[in-house]
Amino acid sequence: MRVQLDPGTVALVAGGPGDPDLLTVAACRALEQADVVLYDYLAPDVSGLVRPGTELIAVGKRPRSTDTTSQDSINALLVELAKAGRRVVRLKGGDNYVFGRGGEEWLHCAEAEVPVIVIPGVTSATAAPAFAGIPVTHRTLSQGFTVVSGHAAPGHPSSSLDWRALARSGTTLVLLMGVKNLAAIAAELQAGGLASDTPASIVSSAFGDTAAVVRGTLDTIAALAIEAGIKPPSIVVIGAVAALDLT
Question: Catalytic site residue 1?
Answer without folding.
Answer: no
